[in-house]
Structure formats: structure tokens, C-alpha cells
Amino acid sequence: MEAQVGIIGAGLAGLCCGLRLQEAGISFRIFEASDGVGGRARTDIVDGFLLDRGFQVLLTAYPEAQRVLDYEALQLRSFEPGALVRCGGKFHRFVDPWRRPQHVLSAALSPVASLTDKLRVARLRQRVRQGSLSAQMEQPESSTLGLLQHEGMSPRIVDRFFRPFLGGVFLDRDLGTSSRMFSFVFRMFAEGDAVLPATGMGAMAQQLSSMLAGGSVLLNSPVDSVAEGEIRLASGACWSPDAIVLACEAPAAAALLGESIPTEGQGVTCFYYAADAPPIEEPILVLNGDSSGPINNLCVPSQVASQYAPAGQSLISATVVGVVEDQQALEYDVRRQLRDWFGESVDGWRHLRSYRIPFALPSQRPPALSPVAKPARRDDGVFVCGDYLDTASIQGAMVSGRRAADQMIAALQS
Asked: 29 - beta bridge partners?
């Protein structure tokens, strides 16, 4: 098909849009403002450590990730299903007994939740796996907290497990996120593994970029404006493609369109530390079930994938939901809480870098997912894609990119 498309943004959505256009034989250029692909899913190398830009995981059950990515080439490394929950001054194992039947007794005896709560979790787990994913996402929408309360979950399990666990996924400890998002995520955790690519989360975008024709991704090419079918770069250069796709995050898209679109987001602050020895030996997530102190969740990525740290070293990631201005004071409070958890050895940990990300995820409070999939084509003929137009996830970003391409292909053919 003789057509040219301009895509603004080389995050997962933009790359997947380009990949689908390439499959259809449509030429395109992707304009990326930064020096690399991946958007919010990038990995930096600092002193030999791999630092993802904010703690993230890939859920292997994501349908679009399964379709597009080469999992074997990514050398995926799995987290232990479940978590270590910090409550009452101790760490308590709260594992998935369906995945780890050998821990069924310890799961039943865990003080994180009552036996009644655990049975209700089992019932909820079974319910979200029934029927098709699309049918599941058409269930009545409420807040996640409202759904958990409707399911009879006690404040004990909500505060000790669901707030820190889902708070780390949604970056929303209030659990105001759509119940449809909860059902989707809970199903993905139940049907697959939470993993890290061996060379960092940025490896996904690198793999997608490598599938595209050489020269189709233009880095360090910020776009200044989009108007009347023309893309004007900050350098002053202009290009007039047959169609334009905005594949940038919601605030950037709103700025280019010159109009208001939903731009409310969830922020996060991630602290990375280097240590001579890991504070935990397992590749497992640590949750703050006490609701005190700034840390929401912690993990040791190098225990999941050894490539995240140089030989003989460990990488620790501590996540704080939200952002604050006084980063120095926050880091002091984080380290004090880490010392309370792991003892004086924390004093020897070296602070590698902090990531303060005001817009880490789009906010998805009801009725944000009614419907889940938003149209890609706008009235002005511009196409849009990104996780703010679907589930706020890697799956949402990828599938929205393909959806925009498919709708564009149909428009160009007609």
C-alpha cells in the first residue's frame, strides 16, 4: 500500500503500531524525543547494575505480549508466586498455594489473613478466570476496594495484602482503580508468571525495535507541533505524512493536540541500592503490610535475574507510591525503614539512583474502563494509542498500538 505514516513516540504502543503497519506493507517513521526506545519501559546501566525506570514486571499471560514478543529470546526469569508480607514487626510468607502446593500448610497458617479470607480469595481467583477475557472485562464497574468489600474481604487482608500488592501494581493504595482493571490483573497473575527479562525491562522495546526496518525509528527527534496533517519537529523540519499517530503518553498527547484529554496519572518514586549481600535470598516480592513508613514494596531484582548486578553484588529496589518534592528527606526515611526491616547492614548499602516519575501510569478510576478499549481514530483524522486508551499495562500499551494501526489501515484502504 502506497502510504506514509508518522508515529510520534517510540514506547511500546508506538513500536507495536509500527510493527503492524510494517506487516501491512505501509511505510512509516517513528519520531522519538529521547535517546532510546521504550518510553516508560526503559533500563539504564549504572556502575554495572541494570536499573529499570521504576520497578516493573512483565506478566507472561498478557495475550498481546505472547503474540508479539519472543519470550525465549528475552530469557525471562520468574518471581516466586506470592509475597513476603511485613506485618507485626516480622516477615510472613503469603504464597499462591495453587502454584506452590508444597506451601499449602504455611499458606493456611499465615497470619496475613484469616482462613475465611483465604477461602474468599480462592473463590475470587476462580471467578476472574471464568469465561473469556473480553466478557470478564464487561462486568459491572466499581472501585477495586468496592469489589473486595463486596466479596467479603476483611479490613485485615485488604490492609495487609491487597493495599501494598495492588498499590504496587496500580500505584494507588486507596484502591480506587477500576474493578475491571483488578479483574484483568488478578487473572493475569493467576494464569502466568511475573517475570523480568534477563537484561532488564527495556529489552522488550529493544526486541520490538529490532523487528522494524532500519532507519524507521528516529531518536532525539522531539516533535514541536501537529497540525493539518503536518508534523513539525523542534529542529524546524517538517513532514507531511498521509496519516499521523500520537503514541506518546497522555500529557504529551494533550499538549500536541492543544486540547484536554484525560491526563490524570499515578506517580511513583523508586530507590535503587547496591549491597554486598542480598537482604532476602528468594526471588520474591516484599510487601509493607503495616501501612507505616514510605516503602510500599521491595524486591531484589538480582535474585530474580543475576544479570541485574555485577558478580558478588546485589541490587535492591524500594518503591514508594507517589512523588514528593524533598527527595533527600524521603531517601532518609526510606533508609530508616530498611534498617528497621533488615538491620545495620543497610548502613553499608550504596544508593545508586532514584527515579521520581510523576506520570508512571494513567489513573483508571471508574468509569475509566467503560469501555476498556477506546477508539484510536479522532474526528480530526489523527490516530492515538497508549495505555491510557486501554488497561494501564504493558498489554494495554501494546494492544492499543496494534488497534490504532488496524483502524488506520482500514481508513487508508477506504
From this structure: 6
**What confidence score (pLDDT) does residue 108 get?**
63
379: Cβ contacts below 8 Å, ≥ 6 apart = none
- Prediction pTM value: 0.95
pLDDT tens digits, one per residue of 269-311: 999 999 999 999 999 999 999 989 999 999 999 999 999 999 9
Write out the three cell numbers for 168: 504496587
**Which of the 8 DSSP states describes residue 231?**
E
pLDDT > 70 fraction of the chain, expressed in percent and rounded: 96
- At 111, is the pLDDT very low, low, confident or very high (cuts 50, 70, 90)? confident
The residue among 76, 56, 41 whose CA lies nearest residue 299 is 56
- Model confidence over 344-393: pLDDT tens digits? 999 999 999 999 999 999 999 999 999 999 999 998 889 999 999 999 99
Using the Cα atoms of residue 22, residue 25, residue 26 and residue 27 in order, give the sign of their dihedral.
Answer: positive
Q: Please give the Cα distance from 166 to 159 (Å, whole number).
A: 11
The reply to whether 82 falls in a domain is no
Extract the C-alpha cell encoding 116: 475465611
Same domain, 279 and 404: no
Residue 330 belongs to domain spanning: 44-77+196-200+265-362
Q: Within a 13 Å sphere around the CA of 154, how many CA atoms are in the beta-carbon half? A: 11
Quick check: helix, strand or coil at residue 327? helix
One domain for residues 256 and 314: no
Helix (H) or strand (E) holding 268, with range, is: strand 265-275
Q: Is residue 32 part of a domain?
A: yes
Cβ atoms of 125 and 186 closer than 8 Å: yes
Q: Tell me how far CA of residue 194 lies from CA of 125, 197, 345, 366, in angstroms.
A: 16, 10, 29, 26
Residues 113 and 236 in one domain: no
368 within a domain of the structure (yes/no): no
Single-letter amino acid code for the residue at 17: C
Q: 507485626: which residue's cell?
A: 88
**In total, how many domains does the chain have?**
3
Count of C-beta atoms within a 10 Å radius of residue 115? 10
Can you give the length of the chain in residues? 414
